[in-house]
Design goal:
four-stranded mixed beta sheet, globular, alpha/beta, Adenylosuccinate Synthetase, Chain A, domain 3, 35% helix
């Protein structure tokens, strides 16, 4: 993966997010959000919204990067290349974001989206705008209760007016 990283940043994120294999304890691979790949997945799979997880863990980092495009042989591309050979030559192009301070994340989840730090909201809105789909939920902790529901497509679909024939 072009956006995978290692070293101190990877160690910090893994520890904050608990990214270790359940059975083996092996450290999982981590990387920056890869918007070209996510754009492709959104189009191919017809996503109508996304969920962002680990916003609490990202607070452990000083700053964040989001891959917005790749450079391939001197050309900027905004979707994954068609072959593994070309993929190996891709250089991620990043946009930097300020991180946010650690919080009482359960209290943030209880209060909802407006309780998120402004920099976390900017990050979330950037991703949503880029993909052209809403953020349905945001995970701010490992427990189900640490989820901020921004939009619930299931409830909205079941309460929408139906046409009569």
């Amino acid at each position: 993966m072009p956006t995978e990283f290692e070293g101190e940043t990877a160690t910090t994120l893994r520890e904050a997010a608990g990214e270790f294999g359940t059975v083996t304890g092996r450290p999982r691979r981590v990387g920056w959000l890869d918007l070209p790949m996510l754009r492709h997945a959104t189009r191919v799979n017809g996503y109508t919204g996304i969920t962002l997880g680990h916003l609490d863990a990202l607070a452990a980092l000083d700053d964040l990067q989001v891959c917005t495009a790749y450079e391939l042989d001197g050309e900027r591309i905004e979707t994954p290349p068609p072959s593994a050979e070309a993929w190996a030559r891709c250089v991620p192009q990043y946009e930097r974001f300020d991180s946010w301070a650690d919080q009482d994340w359960q209290a943030v989840a209880d209060r909802g989206y407006e309780a998120l730090p402004e920099t976390a909201k900017a990050y979330t809105e950037f991703v949503s705008d880029d993909l052209g789909v809403p953020v349905y939920a945001i995970g701010v902790g490992p427990d189900r209760e640490a989820t901020i529901v921004c939009e619930n497509p299931i409830v909205e679909a079941t309460t929408a007016p139906t046409s009569k024939r």
